[in-house]
């Protein structure tokens, strides 16, 4: 794989929108990227279940190979019309030149890193990235001979970690579970100063709450399994950015085969149509639940960037238009008390993931960090008392009433 040269990092280009895109997000989410008229005058983008695509004759095949015709479909591992239409919609919302969908968020993360890094390179990751992203760096990238530094999620720490062979900086914003927010404008400028590619996993924000490309970030990643799909019924991932960089990632996807199933693309596209509406409600409910929890005598601390008590409150207000539905909090008590509280709740379900219609609740010490050494848990601040709530689309008053009865039962 190392024989494939890493692509040059192009200068940021202005966003390109389909001519039918409207400036406001809710309209874009519904109409952007769709062909009008669709095949057979279907209102919705058809779900195309085909593993391969035919050519009328040999000349048509040669014209395709010579890029003389505007046609993207060849073989299912290189793309599918339902996938392409969903990608156009997502790029329109995120304000990037193009988008590429994957079978999962982790497929988007790992394929992007494999495409951009080669032996001898160095990469900077922020130390509170999703655990599997950090694991990929410490296992696969290390095996490939790529050096990396885990830096605190702050500009000065990231800049201090940059070396002459640093090729990229990868961070989430907001991060999980403490909702740290990174200065995206500062990060974009730093990337250009040092000629390194900047990548933001924007899963927790969605394009409704923040658009990293507007701050000069080169590539944006999403676990589309979360808010974008929004219904806890499919897995997908996405990387978005300038066409040249995305093409390099697509070349790797063609080899690795981590493509999204057309069914998932259809569900994702359907989910995205209601994204602005859902996120608006989730922002409101998230803030309401965060305020309620912060005021509860059994709660020791709450992390939510919409609360003045969050260390990144001011920055979050500058670069985000809402703060989503993830609320992390520590209770007074023990790991077992946390379990009792959760078990007494009737609405949120115990499960990993976030961003769907159903509220989910979990103790990070018992899910993502169950098998982690106590030392690692301590390093990232995962205490026994920590609980993470992903607020869904239920009525927030019902969720608060549910917490009330659960706290009373302790
Ligand atoms: C911020 C973030 N990025 C990436 C992923 C991976 O996404 P997926 O589960 O779709 O592979 C997750 C999963 O929880 C996540 O929280």
Describe it for me?
The chain is an alpha/beta fold and 410 residues long. It folds into two domains: 25-47 and 79-273, Aspartate Aminotransferase, domain 2 (3-Layer(aba) Sandwich), CATH 3.40.640; 276-408, Aspartate Aminotransferase, domain 1. The protein is 39% helix and 14% strand. The chain has 15 helices and twelve strands. It has helices at 25-31, 58-65, 81-94, 105-116, 131-144, 155-161, 184-194, 206-209, 243-256, 262-273, 275-294, 313-319, 335-344, 374-379, 396-408, and strands at residues 98-102, 122-126, 147-151, 166-172, 197-201, 219-223, 237-241, 299-303, 326-331, 349-350, 360-362, 386-390. The strands form two sheets. A seven-stranded mixed sheet has the order 1-7-6-5-4-2-3, sandwiched between helices. A five-stranded mixed sheet has the order 8-9-12-11-10, covered by helices on one side. Helix 7 (184-194) links the parallel strand 4 (166-172) and strand 5 (197-201). The model is unreliable at 1-5 and 8-22 (pLDDT under 50). Pyridoxal-5'-phosphate is lined by residues 104-106, 109, 130, 172, 176, 201, 203, 223, 225, 235, 237. Pyridoxal-5'-phosphate binds at residues 104-106, 109, 130, 172, 176, 201, 203, 223, 225, 235, 237.
